[in-house]
Amino acid sequence: MPIENTAxxxxxxxxxxxxxxxxGQLGLDLSDSELRETAYEIFVGACRSSGGGRPxxxxxxxxxxxSDKASSLPSLQRSLTLTAAxxxxxxxxxxxxxxxxxxxxxxxxxxNRPATIGELMRVQxxxxxxxxxRVRRALLRIxxxxxxxxxxxxxxxxELLQQFKSSDFPNQREYEVWQKRKLKVLEAGLLLHPKxxxxxxxxxxxxxxxxIRAAQDRPIETGKYSEAFQTxxxxxxxxASRSSDDYTPDTCHWADGSPLNLRLYQILLEALFDxxxxxxxxxxxxxxxxxxxxxxxxxxxxxxxxxxxxxxxxFNHYVSTGQVENDFLFAADNxxxxxxxxxxxxxDSVYTKILCSxxxxxxxxxxxxxLGYHESFYRGNIDLMQSILSLGLSxxxxxxxxxxxxxxxxxxxxxxxxxxxxxxxxxxxKAFNQEIEKARVSRKSTKSQLxxxxxxxxxxxxxxxxxFTEKEIYSPILQKWHxxxxxxxxxxxxxxxxxxxxxxxSGISELTPGVIQVLIAADKLxxxxxxxxxxxxxxxxxxxxxxxxxxxxxxxxxxxxxxxKSWIKTRVDRLEEWVDRTLQQEEWDPQANRERxxxxxxxxxxxxxxxxEAFFLLPIPMHPDLLPELMSGLDRCLQDYILKAKSGSGSxxxxxxxxxxxxxxxxxxxLNGVFKKKDRLQISQRRKLLPNTTTNGxxxxxxxxxxxxxxxxxxxxRKDLEVLEKRAIAHLKSNGIREGNFVKKHFELSLFxxxxxxxxxxxxxxxxxxxxxxxxxxxxxxxTTEVSSSSRIEPFLQELEQNLEIIxxxxxxxxxxxxxxxxxxxxxxxxxxxxxxxGGPSRTFTLEDSSMIQEDFKFLMDLFWSxxxxxxxxxxxxxxxxxxxxxxxxxxxxxxxxxxxxSLVVDNDGHVSSTKSxxxxxxxxxxxxxxxxNTVLRVLCYRNDKEATVFLKKNYNFPKKL
Length: 962
Prior knowledge:
Blueprint: E1 3-4, E2 10-11, H1 32-46, H2 87-92, H3 108-112, H4 117-124, H5 129-145, H6 156-163, H7 172-192, H8 203-215, H9 227-240, H10 260-270, H11 285-292, H12 296-299, H13 303-320, H14 326-344, H15 349-370, H16 373-376, H17 382-402, H18 415-445, H19 455-478, H20 485-506, H21 513-536, H22 545-550, H23 556-585, H24 599-617, H25 623-646, H26 652-655, H27 671-674, H28 677-687, H29 704-734, H30 748-773, H31 794-810, H32 814-838, H33 849-865, H34 873-879, H35 881-886, H36 894-905, H37 933-941, H38 946-955
Helix pairs in contact: 1-5, 1-10, 6-7, 7-8, 8-9, 10-13, 13-14, 13-15, 14-17, 15-17, 17-18, 17-19, 18-19, 18-20, 19-20, 19-21, 20-21, 21-23, 23-24, 23-25, 24-25, 24-29, 25-30, 29-30, 30-32, 32-33, 36-37
């Protein structure tokens, strides 16, 4: 649980219950209170001689202990006065902290304040006055009995054992507990953790073990003349005198073996923290620490071990008191600077072992927070992160110097960089996983909500926020040890989100708005992260290449493009299948709807419109880039529809009759006498076979009305294409695309197919009507006997007029109707000429027929003019030019006609191009006109007089009959 510090904001408490103790276990049952009493005895014993200064009388706080006032222990009796600012605190970086004690106003604080340093230390170490008094008396007696001996030259627990009997304690049990504690201390200091390694078979050691075991059942007699006690004294002195140190030959080593000495020294240093306010250090820290250092001789402590132990004590106290006072952490880190110097200047393996253990413990604890610093630190306590990071990296750097092999050959200067890199990546992954969990919970809560964002979109935004938070709050601190802190963080987030995107893409089965939203969010996130990485690495050695290379592209835009292309292909394929299936079932019935065009056209255009609408609803940024592919596919589908819809309609050529071979009439014959009724019937039957019609000509789906519906359909499609084009442009504009970027028309194929289909089907309808539907009254009926009232043009005009009315009703669009009727007029004019020039052997004309034929043609033109309600006169005139040019030939005298023909076939030199002096046969070009030799020849072939017959016989020998 976070706790509130003095500044009022919440800070986290990193795990402390599993903090590794670095100094090792004692291996026997010595409680904290027992160790504290032992440490206090050593402290008081070490301070009994201050090496100068006047002795001060100890003043007891208990009125009932007045007899102790005569006891004199120098140094400890220094009076407590207001002192200047602590040099120790200043050196450690610990701020002066004014106590907030409301009782100061009434003076009670002054009354309760210890009067001397000795009393202060007693209170700090939680030693009762009774125990304190007993210790001081014993030490005075010891000093009196061994005048001149230093405290380091005696085995203190043994000396203390001799000073007291059971009568000096409230009861026998308390005395026995006290005695057993002294023996356990001897066991710890001389047997379990001696200064020098001890041979287990050492007789003194074996004897001491026996004595300690025996004392478990029966207390040792400690009288002056007790043989058992003298044996204990002798054995402990022998064991304590073992040393490889020649500089202090009279020093007893009973408490200077690790870890006992470090545990006892730790207890003494912990007395520097105010027992009443654990998050504060006592104001008298300088004086107390000066006295604590006097125990170095007994405990085997030097400056190096002091710095190491003090750093641990500061660190451990910070952790154990709830991580509230950051100054302690900062002080521990400051001491690591001294420890780093100490480590370089010593080759002591014992020190190195303790050093590594201590630093590993600090580092392990620090890394619990640093490997997931987003969980532990935030804007309000970011300074704490810097302190913990500094401590951890200092520990890691020293450890790397002490154990270069374990560092994998890495340079020591790179250790901090490497560690911070690990912390960033680990913390970012943890933070990312937390965001995933939040997104998962959010997805559950919004499942029932409409239009809710996909969870990966939310995650992408959260990751973006996380990246910017990292850059703003954490990176400024991390960059002190890692120049590319931002780059490493965003690269890690990029990798984490990339894994999610990879899984997402692999599971995509179809394109949906949600899928595109996720991919666009991923693309935006990637761009933001890459931009941050680039900005962070501008001044780096490699320009950030290593970080950028680490960020494998999501290629979200490419995935979107591929998905949209697949989406387009699916839609186009479906439309193509629909076109094939629907056109096979379309009946082209003009009664299907009042609009007179095919329902399938309405459906196909609606589908195209819906597809376009769906395309622009896709939340993608590349509409302009992919629109051409969609439009091309739709254009092909619509073109396919048009081509298939017009197939089978026929063409002008498919309905035109085949020109019969040239023949001639028998000169001077009368039509009524030339052909018998039977002959006319045979010719009529043969004539019906002449039109070059297709098998589809009789198909009900290709009737004149149905063909009109097709024309209407193509016109409807062409008009709607303009609407679709405008909608596409409007959609693009709504997406912020300028009009200049889409000038090209998108339905070019369909538009061209429509124009072509309208032209072809109009023409096919016209020629089908004239040469197939009305063949019996026109090409196979008109002028087949003599040009008389019975065989003139009136029947044809009547039926044609009826068909034109039906067509006008079916084709309601003026422009298309005009085009279709114009084609019918052109077909009828062409048919009229074919009757006159290629009507076959059943037709012959005299000069007298010319006026009636011209009159019939005028009737035909009048039908299309319809008193001004029909086609424009100039349009009729334009298409009637050829017929009007040929008709006068029918009224020219035969001899003049022959001369005209000769003039047309004679070459430029005036010679006949024939070896037999016969006129050449002009080619049939089907281009009719008064200046065309073939046209004049055909007029002569159908001229019913002798002169024409003789001329044709002489020059061409045409048959009289086919």
